[in-house]
Amino acid sequence: MAREDDLGPRLAGRLTYLLKRALVDLDALHEQHLESSGISARELGVLLFLDGREPESQQQTAARMGIDRTTMVGLLDSLEDKALVARRPDAADRRRNVVVLTDTGRATLEAATIASDTAERELLGELDDREAAQLRELLKRVVSRPS
Question: Which pTM does this prediction carry?
Fold first, then answer.
């Protein structure tokens, strides 16, 4: 990360800059650590969302995750091409397809979660366990506020 001397205190202390810089750094760490699993951080997010849930349609999944439909189709196409998810007819309504994890998807999810945990630990390396947990809780409060 650039030093405050390089950026000046007005930019270096802005929440927009700090959050963006942390995200850029975390994306780079995820790219590095997830490489062996063959998925991206966004794809991992979809697998984490699908894991242990009742199967939903891709439209429902997109809406719940806050991802536009076109982007979700691309993510699911990629995951399906990798045999990590499958689109199947809904048992309750044959006109509707639902998205489910495959056995390969579950195995990839386990390995990728470990890799993601490593990336997050590296990003938060300057924080002790209590501080890292506090940061997560504070960010949860920020993102869960009413719209």
Answer: 0.86
